[in-house]
Amino acid sequence: MSTKGFIFDLDGVIVDTAKYHYLAWKNLANSLGFEFTEEQNELFKGVSRVRSLDILLELGSYNATPEQKDGWLVQKNEEYLSYIKKMDASEILPDVPRVLDVLLQNEQGVALGSASKNARPILEKVGLLMKFQHIVDGNDVTAAKPDPEVFLLGAQKLGISPQDCIVFEDSIAGVQAANTAGMISIGIGEQEFLHEADHVFKDFTEISDRFLMDLINK
Ligand code: BG6
Ligand code: MG
Known about the structure:
alpha/beta; Rossmann fold; DNA polymerase, domain 1; 6-stranded parallel β-sheet; 11% strand; globular; binds 6-O-phosphono-beta-D-glucopyranose; binds magnesium ion
C-alpha cells in the first residue's frame, strides 16, 4: 500500500459553513442597498475574505474608501463568528468522519487546506481537529485560491509530492488550485459548477471505501 496525501478544504466540504458565509455577505450587501444571490455566491466559495469584499462591491457597483472596507470586513466576520459560535458536531457534513477514518486507518496523510482564518476554531468546535496531521489555512498563505499555494504547502508539510495528493473541494477556485498544483481534484457539490474536477460527487455519502482504496493504491 502506498502513502498518499489527502487534502481537505473546510468550508462546504467538512462543515456546512458556506451557508453562514453567504448569509453574512448577503446581509452586508442588503445593508448597502443591493442584492446578493446564491448563484453569485458560487464565485465567493474558496475566495479570501478581502477578495470576497472586493467582488461584492464590484457586483453592487459600490465605491468605498479603504476605511469603509476595513469596517465591513470586521462587520462581516463578526456576524460570521456569531453563527459559528453555535456550531457542534451535528454540522459535520454527511460521511466526512467515515472518510477521514478510512484514510487514517490506512495510514494515509491527511491535511486541511483552507482559505479561512477561522479554520482551527471551527475544527475544534466540531471535534475534528485531532484528525488532521497538518492544518494550512488563511493565516499561512499569501496567495489565495485559485493559486495552488495552500495545497502545495499542505503537500510539503505532509512530505508527499503533489502528484500523490488528492484534494476535496467544493469551490471552482479550489478545484482550479488543485489542478494547477498537479493533484487529483475531487469536487464535492454540483457537476454544473465543478466540471473542471477529475471526479465530482454530490457529497461524501457517494464516495465508497472502495473508491478511496483505489485512490490509495493508484
Ligand atoms: C473559504 C470560504 O473557505 O474561506 C470563503 O469558502 C471565505 O467563503 C474564505 O471567504 C475566508 O474565510 P474566513 O473565515 O477567513 O473569512
Ligand atoms: Mg470550500
